Amino acid sequence: MCRPKPVYKIDLSKPQNIRWLAPEVWHTGETCFATDIYAFGIMLWEFFEIPYNIPYSNWKAITVKERVMCGYRMPAPKSMPPLLSALMRKCCDQQPDARPTAIELRRHLERINEIPIILIYKMRDL
């Protein structure tokens, strides 16, 4: 995750948690608030992956980097409600400017939280 300043430079020659790194980080070596939102999208996937596996668990690190940079994203876990799977896709958009801001993300989660849980899961069957 990034620091309080808007942009933080990371050293890509050192080990990184690449399974959570946004694709633009590989080009610039910089993290920012949009890269944090991307990592949050990956964490959403983790919350619903049953049984738990690390993201891209069947791939070597170099494959994760190449595929993510080319636009591949993991499909939503079967246990993930549709509203959250749509949010996960938005958070992991290839374009940083297309991802929600932290404020937008909070509002979206608050709206989802107001919906009774049974309805969230029934939406999958519609």
UniProtKB/TrEMBL annotation:
Domain Protein kinase: 1-111
Entry GO CC: plasma membrane; receptor complex
Molecular function GO terms recorded: ATP binding; transmembrane receptor protein tyrosine kinase activity
PROSITE patterns with a match to the protein in the record: PROTEIN_KINASE_DOM
A Pfam family it matches: PK_Tyr_Ser-Thr
Matches recorded under InterPro entries: Kinase-like_dom_sf, Prot_kinase_dom, RTK, Ser-Thr/Tyr_kinase_cat_dom
GO biological process, one term: cell surface receptor protein tyrosine kinase signaling pathway
Domain of life, source organism: Eukaryota
Transmembrane spans: none
PANTHER family xref list: TYROSINE-PROTEIN KINASE RECEPTOR, TYROSINE-PROTEIN KINASE TRANSMEMBRANE RECEPTOR ROR
Protein name as catalogued: Protein kinase domain-containing protein
Organism this protein belongs to: Ascaris lumbricoides
